[in-house]
Input
Amino acid sequence: MISRSLSSERKRAAWLFLTPMLFILTAVAVWPLGRTIYLSLTNATLVDMTNYRLVGLSNYIAYDEGRWYGVLTDPQWIAALRNTLIFVVISVSLETVFGVLIALLLNTTFPGRGVMRAAMLVPWAIPTVVSAKMWSWMLNDQFGVVNDALMRIGVTAEPVAWLAEPSLAMASVIMVDVWKTTPFVALLALAALQMVPNDCYEAAEVDGVGSFKVFFHVTLPLIAPALAVAVIFRLLDAMRMFDLVYVMTGATDATMTLSVFAQRELVSFQDVGYGSAASTLVFFVIAMLTALYMMTMRLDLDGRSR
Amino acid sequence: MARVQLQSLSKQFGTTDVIRGVDLDIADGEFVVFVGPSGCGKSTLLRLIAGLEEASAGSIFIGGEDVTHRPPSKRGVAMVFQSYALYPHMDAYKNIAFGLKMAEASAESVDQRVRRVADMLQISNLLDRRPRELSGGQRQRVAIARAIVREPHVFLFDEPLSNLDAALRTQTRLEIARLHDDLGSTMIYVTHDQQEAMTLADRIVLLNKGRIQQVGKPAELYRRPATRFVAEFIGSPPMNFLSVQIEGGAATLATGERIPLQTQISGAVDLGVRPEALALAEHEAPASLRARVVHTEDLGDACFVHASIADRSRLVARLAGDAAVPSKGQSIYLRLPSEGLHFFGRDGHRVG
Amino acid sequence: MTRRFRTVGLGIAALICTAVLLFPLYYALLTSLKSGSELFRVSYWPGEIDLSSYARVWSEQNFARNILNSVVVAFWVVLLSMTLAITASFALGRVRFAGRKTLLYAILAISMFPQVAVLSGLFELIRFFGLYNNLASLVLSYMIFTLPFTVWILTTFMRDLPLELEEAAIMDGLSSYVIVRHIFLPLMAPAMAATGLLAFIAAWNEFLFALTFTLSNEQRTVPVAIALITGASEYELPWGSIMAASVIVTVPLIALVLVFQRRMVAGLTAGAVKG
Output
């Protein structure tokens, strides 16, 4: 422990060190968030953001002459909420399952293991926008290689409109996200797997326990904590997803996520009040999830304090 | 002037008292060793003097100035750490020079001072090496050089030999002693090894549970321990103790045996006698105890005989190397000397 | 027998996985080497190599400018984040003060902000400071996601540096700033390399802010440029050019990642697994 008279210099230095970082973080994160929440209570527009009037919660929900107004009653927003939830649940589940399977694969030795490990980083290294474009091209209904391959094998007779067809569009987006993110989950799961001591497996082998049982009763519980952290981060990330949908399909009813909806209101429709309300809602959903997580997990960031 | 004075110094960590009201006066140029068992507070006391810990109460004076609230760099002290704490990515030269350079001394004077100190410690040929390229002993000398080059009033050593192997420890101990002779500075040295304390110190400060048990020259602590704790800590193997009741010129043991004594003391006391003061007697004699040999250790220059007396308590006697060694299980008589007996009251303090 | 069967089976599974992972890039490369009507014919193997897509991207799109913009932004983002984070991590990792834990949590929480939630507020700020359509607006706004994780990772590493080293430096009379700059910084070099790389990639990858805060093609970064590549008509996308641009951008990134893969995986997993 550092003494107090000594620590007064250190404390002064500490605050000096912290202040620039805190200032910038406040300026680019806290203040803008506050402004967004405030603006959601106004009727500001992008054209003139200085001239506005406070309108209370009417951007969120209002009842006027027999009709409901506001984001919360907007059918497109509700569709966006639905899309987002579908995306999050399916995407993260698939990524986790595939991620663990791939990690299990990588945890064994086989020829070409190094190559596969290196290949795993490729989807993650490619910028999201580029992945979106690559896959959009592959899923192109007229000239896409996916349709070509499927028709050659005989799975489909006609070209499939992966991105245009509402029922398929979300599936396509999910598929690309899974392609892009599974390696990340797999690498995390692999790290967790490699921390499992070998004796557990050896003991199970001696006891004659079958592989499936070993996985579910030994491996899975041991990697569950690390996996849980990865899943939480993925959930929070998936809830605010924007890039993939915007680039692959644009803001269509079938695929629009909460973030895409909010951005469209703000930038395309230039309704800052309404768009800010939508943005604030995204924030609150994520904040609630985060708070829930932090309360249940009680993250301990503060190891040894001095 | 590098006199160090501690007045009513106390330190608490949370609700735990680690140092309780320590008063100490260290003269200029003295080599003082803080020694004691683990947790006695010796390292904390050193760190309080260094300024790495803040006193909860009391004052510290160095060179006549009250430094209690000053940071370490303003106290005129330098410290050698147990794990040397050398900057890993700098070579030995830079390690030694760094503090001076930052204090903006001129480049020539820094260089001069560094080379002079390196010479003194015979590490001049190692100056361009990084710590990981040096042996433990060499690193220790670089750490010492770093301290010396600051020309402090007081040198502080925090168990500097603990990380060295036995042979290196003895050699480095001699070097530190020689250093003290050469520099003549005040040195405060912390160790848990009583042998180091006895050989290096001008005076020993023996601590237990945050309090000073005794301060004095090594011989004083050995010959006139102030408390039972001191008597047990100093000397290896430790002093033997017997609980006795003294009245009318004789001490009665718990076994019932009576030993004639010439002493003014009376009452219930602990009688202490060092192993080398016990002698093997051939047969029952006055002031001797009957004992059965449990174990013997023949070290060549001396022989330690462990024996148990009637109430099952053990005594250790030290015999000369060429004495006849009794065998295990043999019945012997251990004679107590007429002088060189120590008496301690039940509260642990010396009596008489 | 079963063992070899198993290994072969695993090998095949690995092959399929690797193929799925790499195919899109391969196909993009394939496409970029075609042109004209060839683009509209599906092929799985390279045929005649035609570099006209690349030429078009370079000249018509002014893609070089976009790449330069991305490099400049990423560079400044890394420099700024690292500088702010390393000093902040000293404070957060080694100095005890009231509210430290809360602050750490708060910084972590900020990394959870959806970008869209700060969009209007940031837009207002940027317009107020006259930074619209200026790369500086991107450098500053990217701090919202680079600072939290760089601070967090560097704080973990700072915390683990030995106390005795710092105490020896204090005894030497060194100030906190000197200690951070001369003693700790060199020791943190590997951690900083990994974190810097992650920050670089995050900045390079960013889309929403770049889309919203820049207007002209001269100021656009790579992701936005690629997303907005348009063709002669509204319904005709120049896929050859798009794929060429994608390849140009991706190959150096992949090279970077492959070279530093061990470092980066360690950095990524350190955060999550150590929790």
Summary: Chain B has two domains: 4-233, 240-344. The domain at 240-344 of chain B is CATH 2.40.50.140 (OB fold (Dihydrolipoamide Acetyltransferase, E2P)). Chain B has eight helices and 20 strands. The two ends of chain B are 38 Å apart (CA to CA).
